[in-house]
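Researcher: Good morning. I'm working through a list of sequences from a screen, and I'd like to move beyond sequence-only analysis. For each chain I'm collecting a predicted structure so we can compare shapes side by side. This is the next one on the list. No need for commentary yet; just the structure.
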Amino acid sequence: MNKATFNWAILLIYLFLIFYFSSLPKIEVLEKAPEFYLRDKVLHVVEYGFLGFLSYNAFKHNKFLNKKIFFYAVMFATIYGITDEIHQLFIPNRIFSLIDITADFLGSSLILFKKLIK
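Model: Good morning. Structure tokens for this chain:
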């Protein structure tokens, strides 16, 4: 398996995992995690930060996206976050949240630091 195929496979698996966990009315593991202020938002930033990173790794193999790869990776992760929030409208005990979408965008934007560090 070449690197591009591997990166796309990992991205698709991660997208499925986000969808799966969003389909659960409540997530038992999170209920056992330590409580702190804005815990849910921090988790969104981390979750979508990783999604932004995986998106970047998958998209970097497309020669047509080379100059705007960071933009496309952030937009892809953010749009997926929006669709995930819409999906949660149909799940018991879950809600649509604009604040979660903002946290998703901020998390996925963390990959821009990779460009700034170079």
